[in-house]
Amino acid sequence: MQTDEIDQLIKISKQCFHQTFDPWRALEDVNTYIQRAYTREKLLSELKTTTSKMFFAFVDNQIVGYLKVNWDSSQTENNWPEAFEIQRIYVLKQFQGLHVGSALMHKAISMAKEEHFHRVWLGVWEHNDKAQKFYHYFGFKIEDEHTFMMGDTAQRDLMMVKDI
Q: Taking residues 24-41, what's their average pLDDT?
């Protein structure tokens, strides 16, 4: 992903986040999170970070999701300093079930192996059963938990890890 694709990144980030959390969380918290996490400045900074990469997923030349991975100092947690983080793996609801998420997961795991990592980890909201089932399918296991701020509300995320 290139910095000139920032408008597409902002759009897909907001769409996916709303679709994922609007049915379950207070809209005010979702909007507050989006206003903080998906600003042009913040996403441009993330794109320019050398220990973080983002990739779009396409179906028929349409952006339908994206992946963000981190390693070294870019990781959002320090629990596994020698591991590779999958920070975001989002697919628009209408394209779920078409194996887009699986393709993104394979991309992340492949990249982790290419970079010589032996563990991959991610955080998932404790009530996102669909995502947890997806991660379990790929061999991730719950190993820890942390607090994730959704707007101004604390929620519990499960930390899932996979040895590769």
A: 88
